[in-house]
Amino acid sequence: MAACTEMVSAKGLFYSTANTMRLLQTSAEDQPLVVQLYGNEPEIMSRAVYQLCSMGFAYFDLNCGCSVNKVVKTGSGAALLKNPRLLLEMVSAMTQHAGAGRVGVKMRLGWSNQEIVYLYLAKPLADAGAGWITLHPRTAVQQFTGRARHQALQELKTVSSIPVVASGDLFTARDALQCVQSTGVDTVMFARGALMDPAVGMRYQHLLQGRRDLPSNRDFVLRLCREAIDVYRRYSTTRAVLKLRSLLPRMMRGLPGAKELRKRIILCKEWQDLEEVMTSAQRHPETQ
Ligand SMILES: Cc1cc2nc3c(=O)[nH]c(=O)nc-3n(C[C@H](O)[C@H](O)[C@H](O)COP(=O)(O)O)c2cc1C
Fold it and tell me: Would residue 225 show up in a list of annotated catalytic residues for this protein?
């Protein structure tokens, strides 16, 4: 299973901005790692991949799915779906340095219902050296509304000579297994499901191997929260406490006492504050 970094701007990399370099921070636990890039200039993208290869990164993904205005107004992200020729040039520019099979494309069905391109792109993407296609089967115009059209995943899998990864409304490991079995796709990418349950990938592996699901009880979830805090603490500054203030309550949702824990977590400012909340939650489950 591959992990993804946050989306990185090819241009930001070109100018080595501090923010871009921060997004590229990684550790051994992240392997195997795919760096996702966004941009709209093949030349800049080519240089970005060259630079990343020289830094030791080996796998890349082109973002053609982001529908956030800030990104699409520059012609990047899902806007590339409106310009398939440029999209393919971007992929060729990336494979030039990364090598064939080391670049994936993350896309939606098309820009709108009137501009559906996912089936049309399958062959040219493989010809351009792409190694896999991840499809979030909604249009860019749809953003996150409606339901992901899983039928489209099956259609893409039928015409694609390269692996297809499913994304969209896969909130649990069971959703993912059901999607793989019904559409024939090669694997899945979790997004919102992983924000609520970072163990969702592990759970999926368990189910895939015919093993029993991992527990979802309070002890297990609090242990996961602890691990999340430890990882953030090891690799980040106190700024990460703010991120954990929104992440931890999401992970704890549905547990007995979750509301009270949330009230305490959102007031945390320092690592020590989080430590105290977690220690008391683990010591006194009956009072939470
Ligand atoms: C908070 C958030 C951040 C996301 N960031 C990215 C991103 O950087 N790159 C990307 O390709 N997709 C990104 N996505 C889209 C997801 O990869 C995924 O395609 C989409 O959320 C649908 O899957 P889901 O229904 O399982 O969440 C993001 C989604 C969310 C909710």
Answer: no
Residue burial 169-180, b: 16+ Cβ < 10 Å; e: rest? bbbbbebbbebb
Within the chain, residue ranges assigned H as helices are: 10-14, 18-23, 42-54, 69-72, 84-98, 118-127, 150-159, 173-183, 192-196, 200-208, 218-235, 239-252, 258-265, 271-283
Structural tokens at position 13: 């990399």
What residue's CA is closest to ligand 1, atom 7? 7
pTM (2 decimals)?
A: 0.94
The residue written with tokens 């297994």 in the block is 177
Question: pLDDT tens, 71-118?
Answer: 999 999 999 999 999 999 999 999 999 999 999 999 999 999 999 999
| Residue 165 three-state SS | strand
Alpha-carbon distances, residue 140 vs 82, 111, 122, 268, 276 (angstroms) = 10, 5, 18, 37, 43
CATH architecture of 3-169: Alpha-Beta Barrel (3.20)
Q: Find the residues whose C-beta lies inside 6 A of ligand 1.
A: 6-7, 36, 63, 65-66, 106, 136, 167-170, 189-193
For residue 5, how far is its CA from the centre of ligand 1 (angstroms)? 12
Measured distance CA(175)–CA(21) in Å, rounded: 35
Chain segment 113-162, per-residue pLDDT in tens: 999 999 999 999 999 999 999 999 999 999 999 999 999 999 999 999 99
DSSP SS3 for 40: coil
Cβ atoms 138, 148 nearer than 8 A: yes
Question: How far is ligand 1, taken at its centre, from the CA of residue 108, in Å?
Answer: 11
167's enclosing H/E stretch is none
- Cβ atoms of 125 and 91 within 8 Å: the answer is yes
Active-site pick, 4, 64, 66, 225: 66
Q: Which atom of ligand 1 is nearest to the CA of 36?
A: 9
pLDDT higher than 50, residue 1: no
